[in-house]
Amino acid sequence: MIGGVILAAGYSSRMGELKPLLPVGGVPALLRAAEALSGAGAEVAVVTGHRREELTPLIRRCGALELPNPDYDRGMFTSVLTGLRHFAALGAEGVLLLPCDCAAVPKEAVRQLVACAGDRGEYALPVYGGKNGHPLWIPARYFDEILGFDGPGGLKGARLLHEDSLLCLPMPWEGVVLDMDTPEDYAALCRYVQDDGLASLARGRRFLLLRHGATELHSGKVVMGRYDARLSAAGREQMKAMGRRLADMGLAASALYTSPLRRARDSAGLVNEALGLPLREMEAFSEISLGAWDGLLIDEVKSKWPAEYERRGRYLMSYRFDEGSESFYMVQHRVRKGLLELLRADDARDILILSHAGVIKCLWGLLQGRDIDWAFPLCRPDKGELTVLET
């Protein structure tokens, strides 16, 4: 079991208003924090103190447990201890610690943190742009040390005893480093979480999502990722036939957008023989990077990294093997940014994108207002297959 501790006992003195109740994207900050932790499978407990009677109904509403801290006026560390005592008694394998004013942390970031650090026995936290963020992962091995710590600096002082082994996990979400200490911080955080307009930009358009053609066979199944495989003869014929099919559809498209990877770029060139559209490569539509595993045989990966391969299977959406790799949540993030850029620059009714299975799954989900978790088992494009979606 994983514990999720939300710190909501403070005075909110710099803000001037009770931060847990401030709306962020139309939702109280406390609820957003609870959703981020519960979305990663944590049992959520909220530590309260100042004006706790105003928070109790909200805590019940989100199904979390309230942990009153009678010593909240002695500082945040007393709230940390209140949360840790509770989950240590329950035998939790670790705790995710999140101040309630960090209300822009996405559930994807929390899931990735658990997937990459959950069983490694070290402190871990997300990093954005070189800045440490939230939540902090505290493994069970350090519970007793923190609960008995009487040195300077509170939790930070206890954590610094193990600074050399701290896992800092780079992530693409700025929300992990945003908080609401001041009114200016609050305004910036609210701007960050506001609707980016994807639904309105996509409305009334037809999206044609084409996966690249079949690739050359190898001696076994390959971890494809960014590995730059070549199209097979059959794949080339697939793409030429698809070009003729698309031409017969009378597309109202202004360009053919493609991943820059060779198997996609070559596919786009063959398709475009029948279309004559401008070809526009977009890095955002590249396949997922699997780091050191890219291009290796799956059997080789299983043999060299059996525990890591098994862990990726358990945390498929959120796991990263190394800093050169991506999780599917990270792919979804860059695909969304790329799609927004495309739609803001191109007002054509038909949007034709040639890419890879993982990217198409992301696009298919995003265009229906859903995420990769929902889309992954439902959208299964084969090589050379066209998926059409009207929004």
Determine Rg (CA atoms, Å). 24 Å
Spatial separation of the terminal alpha carbons: 40 Å
- CATH class of the largest domain equals Alpha Beta
Shape: globular
**Total helical elements:** 15
Oligomeric nature of the chains: single chain
Biggest sheet, in brief?
A: 5 strands, mixed
* Number of E-state strands: 15
Mean pLDDT: 95
**CATH-defined fold name of the largest domain:** Rossmann fold
| Count of separate structural domains | 2
CATH-level-2 architecture of the largest domain: 3-Layer(aba) Sandwich
The largest beta-sheet arranges its strands as 5-4-1-6-9
* H/E series: EEEHEHEHEHEEEHHEHHEHEHEHHHEHHE
Structural class: alpha/beta
User: What ranges have pLDDT less than 50 throughout 5 or more consecutive residues?
Assistant: none
CATH H-level superfamily of the largest domain: Phosphoglycerate mutase-like
Portion in helices: 25-40%
Percent strand equals 15-25%
Textual characterization of the structure:
This protein is an alpha/beta fold and 391 residues long. 38% of the residues lie in helices and 17% in strands. It has two domains: 2-193, Spore Coat Polysaccharide Biosynthesis Protein SpsA, Chain A (Alpha-Beta Complex), CATH 3.90.550; 198-390, Phosphoglycerate mutase-like (Rossmann fold, 3-Layer(aba) Sandwich). The strands form four sheets. A five-stranded mixed sheet has the order 5-4-1-6-9, sandwiched between helices. A five-stranded mixed sheet has the order 13-12-14-11-15, sandwiched between helices. The two termini are 40 Å apart.
